[in-house]
């Protein structure tokens, strides 16, 4: 399965919702601690990955998200607090189309609204989540309730106005943008919560990943106790993603350098573990268009794309010499 | 364009008379960079010209895109801070360099001058003052150090003084303010990001450890950790705040330091050498805390002021040890190999420094360089402490004393006598004596020599820096090389290589290139040996050195092209393969030199096809073509090219391996195995071919077989890190988790017994 070496350290990878062969990867120099960043647009072929396009940024790129309405639009969240909008069809001099400076701290997560398709949210280390639409130069609204960095925000797959946010204040909050305040507060873990995602087939189910190494699945209608707790990662869980194709299937990556796949409805929830990364595994995505296709990136500067069940390293490249 | 170009030093950021590696260049970067923000045109967003199915629920939304009410206002708002800053820039451009040297002295004076003697409650000793003067003159006569000197050092010194002076209200050129702003941002980034991230990485560790980790990093980078914009998580970690206050706040005499034993002994030794102490202090003050000098200074300050001051240094030092200790305790090889952890560790040891927006090796002040330089200056010296010191550094590897220290502590608990013994083996006593001796001499009359030497050294460092920038990952020499001192290491290495004793050959060839670093043939052969031994990083590093010495060597160019192809680095690979064509006596005319800046695969492949048409009987052209087609993943063409070459050169085992690798990439594993077997028939100790066979078996799901081949490869070269990684994967795929531990501990005996071939 193809892999690609990047010049900087991988932070995020996202499949295009329009083209099955296309990926965007966000990277940062010096592990995102200091330096530049880059957004890579990658195209998959049978055995290799090519890079038709890339955009440079003055600070590390922590997350990217594809537009759900335009196949050429991509947004990126940067360490300097900016959200940038890129147009793949525009000449380099015209990019970024926009650079939105409102967050005072690192923008750590972006999610494009999959239902309304005109808006997106950004979560940042300034403890806020902001709602944006493409047609406005300023954010529509700022959601400020979290007491510490917000690491992740994700739209509900069914309800156009509902999203969840995960924070270092150890809570997940569920928001309805029509309401003045968050509607649900889940004190989900004893440690910081780094990631959350909604079940794509059950709009009441949310998964969270934490520094406590566990992944927990919650029903927002009765969130006193999690539906299940999945242990298996050796370090903080950096990202969880629900499968677009199977209701109970979850992929996760962690600072233990592994990518794990889970079925939270099985007693033995851990389905598979992939140990292909040699540094922290930070970015992870599942293709909407190709069932079972996974992509991951990490601080070993590699992007892997592989089919679930196959070996991401399959064919560690034999060496000429 | 925009920020990236500016940050990386585009032509537009050049400040007259300065390089972009100085704080002012960096400032200009930031200013021009941020003003370019205002040039960022607001483009109309493309409409919903979606080529893929789209069912936008808000078709009206896109119509408003071109009109952006209120954006102009935001523009204004964004611009305000920049406008202020550009005023500063204009002011700066008008300033002359004399102004800078004044500023420089202003910064340096309070540091070098009365501060330290005051701490010791003694008047300025005369030799010290004299030295001070000589040293100051040196700096006055060339204001360059501030602009071009060891950059990270100067920058951090500069800002440090500035911050101190701004806090004490001492007037300072107002022109410097924005420079602070810039570096503040960088430092803020490092401080905040590392503290937030450390909390995630080290979930298992105590709060103390996490703080120690962050503090060590910040301390070594000279970043104030007094406050954190993003404090600890509110309410969750009361004990953390307690610890934080404790470590940052009140100054406590540190009496219970576990290393007191040796410190006492050392300070006894040192009290005989007051002069040297002063000298070291001054050197330290001039050059900030980095490298060994920093460690030395920390120890010094403990000795001179053990009961009064500097708990901050003590805390940092203790934390450094804690960090080293904990890192060395984690047995997971994956973590031991983690570049990130090495990076943090290097930063905390001051081996990496922050310069502008980049992180660079602190080469200029690393212990080895300095020691070597010092030794060169004093060639006549009877006891070459520097040599011994260097030897020690080398033989203890990069982690050096910290590792050893923690290892010792693990073994002996708090029995510090053991450690003292160990430490004295490092010739500290000799060293201190020698050092005092040298300094005594220097102060008596040779200080100008020293100064000259130092200046010379500074300019050398510039060259070294430039050179090292051009070659990535430097070559790492083996410890304890028995071939050092061998009369003819090149010949010996060649012989060993021919016999297939690759790991031995590596040692002999390393001895050769240590002796003759300008011997391209030595480096080339070393590179080939590493490649056959399945160590591509070292192979590339050697070949880069060979390439530096002899940029036109065809074999070197081809080898670099192949290695970069292996590493999937297309642009680099193309560059070297094109270089091969350019420098080839026969085909050079085909390659227009002006093209070498922007190479496109199709063009280069076209040229080589042309060359192949000119002389179809030249195996080398077919080989390069095969490599090129690997690069473009046109494996069928690549296989044909290699087969053509093999008709001409049937006994070239590396060619058989290339064919096999290509066939494997093209999912023809059975054919690949045959080709590898051919290579191994010709060269039985070809580690790379053994490893490649393992890969092919693994690709066919024959994990047990793959394990046997990996183990065979590793038995021949236990340093083949990739093969260890692949072996681990095959073990878990074959459900041989019982052998994972043997793999992780690299226990070849067990593995070979379990998986004989």
TrEMBL record, chain A:
The keyword Metal-binding does not apply. PROSITE patterns: WD_REPEATS_1, WD_REPEATS_2, WD_REPEATS_REGION. Belongs to the WD repeat peroxin-7 family. It is found in: Cytoplasm, Cytosol; Peroxisome matrix. PANTHER family: PEROXISOMAL TARGETING SIGNAL 2 RECEPTOR. Signal peptide: none annotated. It comes from Stephania japonica. GO terms for cellular component: cytosol; peroxisomal matrix. One of its GO terms (molecular function) is peroxisome matrix targeting signal-2 binding. Its main location: cytoplasm. WD repeats lie at residues 61-88, 100-142, 143-185, 186-222, 230-272. GO terms for biological process: protein import into peroxisome matrix. Pfam families: WD40 (PF00400). This is Peroxin-7. Transmembrane segments: none annotated. Keywords: Cytoplasm, Peroxisome, Protein transport, Repeat, Transport, WD repeat. It comes from the Eukaryota. InterPro entries: PEX7 (IPR044536), WD40/YVTN_repeat-like_dom_sf (IPR015943), WD40_PAC1 (IPR020472), WD40_repeat_CS (IPR019775), WD40_repeat_dom_sf (IPR036322), WD40_rpt (IPR001680).
From TrEMBL, chain B:
One of its GO terms (molecular function) is peroxisome matrix targeting signal-1 binding. It is found in: Cytoplasm; Peroxisome. It holds the Pfam family TPR_7. Belongs to the peroxisomal targeting signal receptor family. GO terms for cellular component: cytosol; peroxisomal membrane. It comes from Stephania japonica. Gene3D superfamilies: Tetratricopeptide repeat domain. Its main location: cytoplasm. The keyword Iron does not apply. GO terms for biological process: protein import into peroxisome matrix, docking. This is Peroxin-5. Keywords: Cytoplasm, Peroxisome, Repeat, TPR repeat. TPR repeats lie at residues 520-553, 619-652, 653-686, 687-720.
